[in-house]
Amino acid sequence: MNLLIVLTIILSTCAVFEFKPQTLDDVANTPVVTVQVFYTPFSQSAIDFIRLNKKDNDKGIYALMVPKEGSETEVSYKVEVDFVPWGRNVRKVESDKLVYDCSNTESAEKDADCVGTRLHACMSHYTGNLHHNHHEFFMIVCTTQETDWVTAPLKNIAKCSNEVNDEPDDAFNLETCAKTDNVYLDEAISATNVIHMFEELNKDNDPLIYINGERNDDARTDLRTAVCRAFKKEERPEKECEGVSDGSATLYFNSMVLIVAIMGVLYNAWQ
Questions:
Q1: Is position 242 within any domain?
Q2: Which single residue of 49, 99, 228, 253 has CA 20 to 30 Å from 246?
Q3: Do 190 and 71 sit in the same domain of this protein?
Q4: Residue 176: inside a domain
Q5: pTM beyond cutoff 0.85
Q6: Domain containing residue 259
Q7: Nearest CA-CA partner of 207 in 70, 65, 44, 67
Q8: Number of structural domains the chain divides into
Q9: What is the largest CA-CA distance in the chain?
């Protein structure tokens, strides 16, 4: 094996493990960090993840989602969190798009799992841009906080609407939507990219979390650190991301260990 091949292997390894900060444009209504959460609303692992983001939890991003103080149209940080409710119900393709099927029960409007999934899809529909995105986030966190969420998903809608109501919200319409309408479930699933075509949710990976398009399993237990690292270092929120490093030191160390190991194998192969 000649030296050129060895150098090619080493350079390729460095390229794969190089730390590359995100470079999304920071314009009026374009997020700097985008989080996609594909989840089954009643799975315990998804509930645990959502509750991780309650106020004052240092592993969650509640503080990063709070609107800019004194403003109704500006966010403090350009973080968008899209919750995509998956549920356990049948998915089928119609007219080249995925649609959600809650008709696999005799009385879908009384099926708690289906109703809860539709409720979160309805919440997602009503928050169409970055300046309203935090409201969906707050509502989903609020509705899943109570222990009766899995048995009575509609019980706390009015309470949550009042508690996080920094913009108009209609608890009655949300309840009606959750009981009767599959349109927003179809919309939530069909509007996503092809991620779901390749990675189906199961008990071991629920929720599936993507940050700026890359799957991040560490975010299930520490979303704050994962989101903070997705900011360019000079744009990282100082207070909310205090103590979070960019992770590059560990990354480069691991890269060097791998390079040394490869060189060792090649050296032994030449002997």
A1: no
A2: 49
A3: yes
A4: yes
A5: no
A6: 1-19+247-271
A7: 44
A8: 2
A9: 77
